[in-house]
Every structure is written in C-alpha cells, then in structure tokens.
Amino acid sequence: MTATPAETADAVELLGLVAQLEHLAFARLAADAAVAPTAEHRIELSRFAAAAVARRDRVLDRVAELGADPLAAMALYDGVLDDFDARTEPNTWWERLLTVYVGYGVADDFCRLAAAGLDETSRALVVEVLDDAEHADLAVAELDAAGTDTAVSARLALWGRRLVGEALGVVQRLVVQRPGLVRLLDARPTGESTTVAGQDTAAPGAAGQSAVGERTQAPANQASSKLFGELTAQHTRRMTRLGLTA
Amino acid sequence: MTATPAETADAVELLGLVAQLEHLAFARLAADAAVAPTAEHRIELSRFAAAAVARRDRVLDRVAELGADPLAAMALYDGVLDDFDARTEPNTWWERLLTVYVGYGVADDFCRLAAAGLDETSRALVVEVLDDAEHADLAVAELDAAGTDTAVSARLALWGRRLVGEALGVVQRLVVQRPGLVRLLDARPTGESTTVAGQDTAAPGAAGQSAVGERTQAPANQASSKLFGELTAQHTRRMTRLGLTA
C-alpha cells in the first residue's frame, strides 16, 4: 500500500514534531547537565543529551526518505515549548528533573498516540525513538530519594500539576494549529485506545485520510476530549510511579 | 614493556584533562547551538556536542582500563576553563566561534604534545580523539565568510590575540599545578619537536619517569619555553588558516 501525498505530508508533520522535541530535549538536558549537582549527573545527563541528538537525526533521516525537507519539517515547530519553558522555570534540581519527566512525558505520549496513524516504518521508528526511558529512570530514582520528605513530596505534586496543565496547553495549541496531527490521531485503529484504562469512549469515526482539510468538527471535538483523557491518564500513571499525587 | 605505576598515574593525569576538555567542549557547543543564527547551525553544533560526549566517554573508558577512577581523573580539572570563559565572553557569533576554535585549539595542542609521552594505546586514542576537526571546519568556513570585511577581520584578529593569551594562561597554570603533565611533555621523543617549524631548541634532558617529584627545575624551564613556542606557532598557523593576523 503506497501512501498518498496527503498521508506523507501528515507523516512529515508528525516526524517534524518528534525531531523538534528531541532537539529541544537535547538543549534542555545539556542545560540540566551544566547545573547538575554531581559529576555523575553531569556525565549521565550529557549522555542523554547526546542520545537525543542521535534520535533526532534518525527521525530527520526518515523525513528525507519520505522526500521532504528535514529542516523545514522541524521548523514547523520552532518555539513550540517557549511558552512552556517560560512558565515552568524550575526552582530546585528536583523540579528541574520533574519538568523534563512530565513535560516531555506528555509531549511524547501525544506523539506516540498520533504515531498510530503513521505508515508502518515511520510508526516503528517513532515508537522506538520515544521508548528510550533512560531519563525517566534517572528522574524516578532521584525523585524517589527526594520523595521520602513529605513537604518536598507535596511541593513536587503541586509542581507536577502545574507542569501537566502547561503541557496540555502545548498539545491544545498543536491540535488547533496542525490539522495533520489531528488526522493522524483520527486515523488510529480503534483498538489503540485500549492501552489506556478508563478511557473507553468510542473512537472517532475516522473516515480515512484522503479528504484533506475536509474533516467535520464534531468528531474532532470528540477526538480531542478522548485525547486529553488519554494524556491525563498517562500523566497520572507517571506521577504514581514517583509516589506523587497527580 | 609494562608501564610503571608512576607512568600510569601520569597517563591518567593527562587522560583526565582530555576527558574534562571534551566534556567542556560538549557544554560549550550545546550552549552555542542554543544561540546559533540558523537551524543548520543549531543542528550541526548539536552533532558536534554529541560527538564530544562520545569522545569523552572513550577517554574515560581508557582511564578505567588503566585501573583508575574516571570521574576522579576528570575531577582534577574541575573549573579548568572557568577563568578563560569568564574573561572571554564573546560579543558576536563570530567571536563565539573563534573562542572555541582558538581556546580549544590551544588546549588540544597542549594535550597532543603531552600525549607523545604516553603509552602507545593511550597516545593513539588521544591523538585520534583530538584529531576530530569538524568544528574547526565549521569555524573556518564561517569566519572565512566574515573575514571578507576588513573591520570584522581586524576585530577578530584582536579577539584571537586576547584568546590565545588567556589560553596560554590556562596552560601555564596546568604546567604549574600538574607535574604529571610536565613529565609527559619531557618524556617525548626528541624527534617530536620537528613537527613545529622554527622551534628547534634542544629537547629537555628527560631522564625517564621513575623518579616522581624529583625532576630538576632547569629542564622544566627550558621545556616550558619550548612548549609555549610550539603552542604559539600552532596558534599562528590556525589564525593564518582564517586569514587573520595572529
């Protein structure tokens, strides 16, 4: 089955987002490495930063394979996290770790959900790229240690709620501004939704992807509420893993 | 020929410096990527940053192979470029590029010269690691473009002179503080000096490395002036490559 030009354009729209997020993860992890409390953290975070560059480049290679311009695909999302960053300036090392864990957690979940609508090669790549959980493991280990203190826990739980609010705001803007991402979300097989417990609302009636720009608004709203339900559920799981109230 | 414990300690002293410089190059390149003028530069500099992490890790692996603690070896040089960075805050993108090109150029030359006194495996590694000239190529290409303007050229030439002064100051402090590095420089085969034209002062009478802490001062001074002559000659070559007056 050959992808239509419209399908390829949508795939590039998502791959550009994933590439931009990996690039921003690089920048963020490098900045975190610069202020990390120990040499071990500096080393570890610099390795994560380098790994994000490698992941970004694999995604950019796929964009080129699809015949599109990698830098133009990324450029669609220039400044995508500027608001998020400006509103979530961390005050402590733990808040800093949580910012990446939650902020990129939500963004990655969004990309993972949209990836279900991609061609098989692109989907496998995105899923593999987003599955790198090393930073999450560091965050969990560190925040576990921090979490033994109730006052710190309460503060971090609050911070987590602020982060998820801002992160969902980013997703909201993406959904409004980038119809290709919405089409990919809609194109997901119905079975996909079962991965998130408690979110068994009916899948939107995706009628294929050929009619670009012609999707009706009602299913979009339905899809949107389903999407935010799924993202919130994943966030809750993530916070629970840290022993924090979502 | 097995290395003596003293020789191994000296090797670790140099490898720690190379690892620290690669780590600092990562941090610097990541920061440069964050303020680069175009997406192409951001991408390219992030790749250089990632490559510096990989190079640092290869050097740290060698430290571990030699039975020493990689982080402790790096920690010998914590803050080694703090003064240099504080005194050479670049004002323009070109000054920024030149800062890395010249600053790390001098530091790399110093490490390359000292590497001649290393065991063969360590020496081959250091030479290979320091031979990665990708950033230099970027700097040269960019500064070439900048250099067509005489006023910019004059300004950059001045900047280069300031940079090399500060960089030689860093080397001066290293030579004073880390006798292991001086022993490695002294242990170079006499032929090594022929790689730098016009610096044919006699090699210091290195009497082997077994008598740690027992080296006389006279050859150290001689070696020091020879060293700075070599570093300055390399700097001049580097500036000439840019069409700038050293």
Strand content of chain A: under 5%
Low-confidence stretches of chain A: 193-216
Helix content of chain A: over 70%
Taking the sheet with the most strands of chain A, its summary is: none
Instruction: Report mean pLDDT of chain A, rounded to a whole number.
Output: 85
Name the structural class of chain A: mainly alpha
SSE series of chain A = HHHHHHHHHH
Number of helices of chain A: 10
The coarse overall form of chain A would be: globular
Rg of chain A, nearest Å: 18 Å
Largest interface: A-B, 24 and 24 residues
Assembly classification? homodimer
Total beta strand runs of chain A? 0
Q: What distance separates the N and C termini of chain A? A: 42 Å
How would you characterize this protein structure?
The structure is a homodimer of 246-residue chains. The first copy, chain A, is mainly alpha-helical and 246 residues long. Chain A has ten helices and no strands. The longest helix of chain A is centred in the first third of the chain and has 30 residues, at 5-34. Residues 193-216 of chain A have low confidence and may be disordered. At the A-B interface, helix 1, helix 2 and helix 3 of A face helix 1, helix 2 and helix 3 of B.
Please render the helix and strand layout as text.
2 copies of one chain form a homodimer.
Chain A: H1 5-34, H2 39-65, H3 70-75, H4 82-87, H5 93-115, H6 120-130, H7 134-146, H8 150-177, H9 179-186, H10 217-241
